[in-house]
Amino acid sequence: MNPPEIHRSSFIVHRCLLAFIFASAANAQTFQLFGYLTGHSAYVKAPPSWATGGFGRFDAGADTAGDHATRSSAVAQVGAEWSPTTWLTAHGQVLARSEPSGTKGRRFGVVEAYADLHGEKWRLRGGYFFLGTSRENVDPLWTSPYTITYSALNTWIGQEVRPVGVDLQYSPSFYVTLGATAFRDNDTMGTLPAGRGWTFGSRLTVYDEELAVPDGTTKPFTRDLDDKWGHSERVRVQIPERAMLQVTHLDNRSELGERRGLDPWRTRFNIVGAQVGTTGPWTLAGEWMSGDTTIGFRRGTFTLDFETAYLLGSYKHEHDRLSVRVERFSTSVNEDGKAWTVAWFRERNANLRAGIEYVRVSGDRPDATGFGVIQTGGSMVTIELRYKF
After folding, report:
1. Would the pLDDT of 29 be above 90?
2. Enclosing H/E stretch for 24
3. Is the separation of the CB atoms in 327 and 313 below 8 Å?
4. φ, ψ for residue 263 (rounded to 5)?
5. For residue 157, pLDDT beyond 90
6. pLDDT band for position 25 (50/70/90)?
7. Beta-carbon neighbour count of residue 387 at 10 Å?
8. CA 94/CA 132 separation, integer angstroms
9. Which helix (DSSP H) or strand (DSSP E) does residue 152 occupy?
């Protein structure tokens, strides 16, 4: 593969980011900066975190299994949007973070960078972006208005599912939306649930970041390994401002066999998501995911089946919001668990949000016993203070 082919996907990301630099000078009236400054303090009773190479299911964990600890973190998320005309919008997001000692990964990086061409009924998006599947991460910069800790499904999406490619969306009416995506740079998708199981947190992987897995590392978003395009399709039916139902299919079409020190996983899944009460004080949302991921060896392959689902209820009254979420998760290596979350937020004004959350996860991971871990679940109480600008 020649150098232009190797760096093609990185070139797309970097060109999208350059658009924002020129936008600020060219037309200040159409350029907007926004974001969040968030601080967390968590009391956690769980094994060492997956983020440090352990089997603990939270973004932070204790030093040893059966112990407890207090961990603090902070993140700054900054987004930019430029709309030079009515049919073109460019968007980018970067973040910087401070994390507990021992956490592997980058402290600064690009989360999204894309441009949209759009008309009355269609939108063509190109770059590095989240697919529009989540029913809980519906606030700007792929954040949640409901909880501090995301569901197992959306924790994984934030860590390992983010295409670099093109997405075409068409809405022939107010009630139906169709979409299709062709993408690259996501060949290792599936490594995390196979390597250490389902986890719970709000940590977003940045481009070309190296994450920990037991006995190794992985790069979820990096230059394409096999020069093959993955694809995704979706259909959404909705009653505007009342309810919606969406079905999404994805297949990364990875070619199996180690390349450039990384192991591709051929991953396919379906997501069914629904939401009721999108604009009222009450909101009920849920998602179900089922799929499989396969890795290749010299003498064969290994396939992991996975499934998870959650149901979220939330009520907002004036400055307060109370949310409750229940969920289940499983894989075909006898991993079977459940979790529940209760979160309360108070928005003191349009810019400041304070909150507290309790998360309880129950579930074993049989292959963790070889690392001295029997119970991979635990509990966590988190206090949050977030400033929006």
Report:
1. no
2. helix 8-26
3. no
4. -105, 110
5. yes
6. very low
7. 13
8. 19
9. helix 152-160
CB atoms within 10 A of CB 138: 16
Residue of 32, 24, 18 whose CA lies nearest to 113: 18
CATH architecture for the domain at 38-388: Beta Barrel (2.40)
DSSP string of 72-112? EEEEEEEEEEEEEETTEEEEEEEEEEE--TT--S-SEEEEE
Residues of the chain with pLDDT > 90, as a percent, come to 80
- Residue 2 — pLDDT band, cuts 50, 70, 90? very low
The per-residue pLDDT for range 219-250, each reduced to its tens digit, is 999 999 999 999 999 999 999 889 999 999 99
Tell me, what amino acid is at 317?
A: H
pLDDT digits (tens, 9 = 90+) for 44-91: 999 999 999 988 999 999 998 889 999 999 999 999 999 999 999 999
CB 185 within 8 Å of CB 164: yes
Q: How far is CA 109 from CA 181, 204, 208, 221, in A?
A: 24, 10, 9, 12
Q: What is the pLDDT of residue 370?
A: 59
pLDDT above 60: residue 308:
yes
Query: How do the domains of the chain map onto residue ranges?
Result: 38-388
Q: What are phi and psi of 325, to 5 degrees?
A: -135, 135
Residue 312, C-beta contacts closer than 8 angstroms, at least 6 positions apart: 135, 136, 146, 147, 151, 283, 284, 285, 286, 323, 324, 325
Per 3-state DSSP, the chain is made up of helix, strand and coil in percentages (nearest 5) of 15, 50, 35
Q: Report the distance separating Cα 40 and Cα 69, nearest Å.
A: 14
- Buried b vs exposed e over 73-105: b needs ≥16 C-beta within 10 Å? bebebbbbbbbbeeeebbbbbbbebebbeebbb
* Number of Cβ within a 10 Å radius of residue 167: 22
pTM of the model: 0.91
Backbone phi, psi, residue 8, to 5°: -60, -45
Taking Cα atoms as reference points, which of 124, 214, 212 lies closest to residue 168?
A: 124
Separation between Cα atoms, residue 34 and residue 359, nearest integer Å = 29
**How many contiguous H segments (helices) and E segments (strands) does the chain have?**
4, 18
Of residues 2 and 103, the one with the higher pLDDT is 103
In the chain, the percentage of residues whose pLDDT exceeds 70 is 90
Residue 16: which H helix or E strand, with range? helix 8-26
